[in-house]
Amino acid sequence: MKRSSKIIPGVVAGVLVIALAGVLNLTRNEAHRLITAPVETRKLPEETPADYNLPFEEVTVTSPDGIELAGWFVPSRNGAVIMMQHGYKSTRKELLNEAAMMYRHGYGSLLTSVRAHDQSGGEMITFGMHEVDDMAAWYQYLLTRGDVNPQRIGILGNSYGGMLAIQYAAQNENIKAVVANSAFSSLNDTVSTSVEYFTDLPAFPFAPLIVFWAERETGFKTEDIDTTKWIAQISPRPVFLMQGGADVVISADSGQRLYDAAGEPKELWFDPELGHVQFDTERAEEYERRVAEFFDRYLLDQ
Questions:
Q1: d(CA 102, CA 158)
Q2: What percent of the chain is helix, strand and coil (3-state, nearest 5)?
């Protein structure tokens, strides 16, 4: 009996060690999957502006660290252009509806992609640590065009792209107006919600471990990715935020957190019934009216 009583705790300890090793390996693999996007795993655009009867050019730029980035330029009829950035692990196709919508109002669009997305180079997603340099390369491209009024450049982003739009506008005072649809307020605010959505794992205990591995692979801390700090730097330029109360991809209070942190002028469109980035599809007419009026007010009427 004494012998078996000694064996049982040893077996339990061995099982726990194996289980812990399994959890650590699982979370490390999930972290790597979330922050990397090899070309062979990516979504690629299935449509182009031509499918929306839009004139356009295929354009490329090179980031400061040598990564080639892919985009589309839709010409402007009023000198104003909206930079448009799609969401996490998505493609330029995501913004074709918005490009067509703004073209009806005379606006041009630069549908951008950043590293590790679409047909652009690079494989690591750093949540703005390097992507803001990609956005800067796209902005510099616009300045080379004679058909773009540099005083009439705005930016619009969905989700992750909304976060990048806010982060880049905070660094570039020449971005005159910002629209962010379902942008997360900070990684720390949204990590539990997003980990559950993208991994199908419960937030506890997996989210902290995934964050641990992601921080070590990318070299940044989650507290460094705080959109509330960046949005506070944009005023007196305007921001228009949208957030759905039924969002399960990011924390549904992200919009209110961003609105509270922003200076004037600012607008928040909160709809308790909508999920993630659903405003342009579920509230299409109101979305077009409100976004076009916002850009008209701050890009054309100044």
A1: 15
A2: 50, 15, 35
**Which among 98, 54, 105 has a CA at the least distance from the CA of 75?**
54
Count of CB atoms situated within 10 Å of the CB of 259: 19
In the Cβ-directed half-sphere of 107, how many Cα atoms lie within 13 Å? Answer: 28
* pLDDT, mean over the chain: 93
Tokens of 50: 């031509």
Check pLDDT > 90 for residue 266: yes
Q: Answer whether residue 5 shows pLDDT above 70.
A: no
Distance CA 117, CA 119 (A): 6
Region label for 195, one of left (φ > 0), alpha (ψ between -120 and 50) or beta (otherwise): alpha
202's CB contacts (< 8 A; 6+ apart) are 196
Task: Say what the pTM is.
Answer: 0.92
Q: Per-residue confidence at 206, pLDDT binned at 50, 70, 90?
A: confident
- C-alpha 108, offset from chain centre: 21
What pLDDT was estimated at residue 174?
A: 98
Q: How remote is the C-alpha of 59 from its chain's centroid?
A: 21
Tokens 């980990």: give the residue: 195
Burial profile 48-69: b = 16 or more Cβ within 10 angstroms, e = fewer: ebeeeebebeebebebeeebeb
CA separation for the pair 248, 190 (Å, rounded): 10
Alpha carbon separation from 300 to 52, 112, 135, 289 (Å, rounded)? 25, 22, 23, 15
Pair 159, 184: CB distance under 8 Å: yes
Angle 19-23-24 (CA atoms, 0-180°, nearest 5)? 115
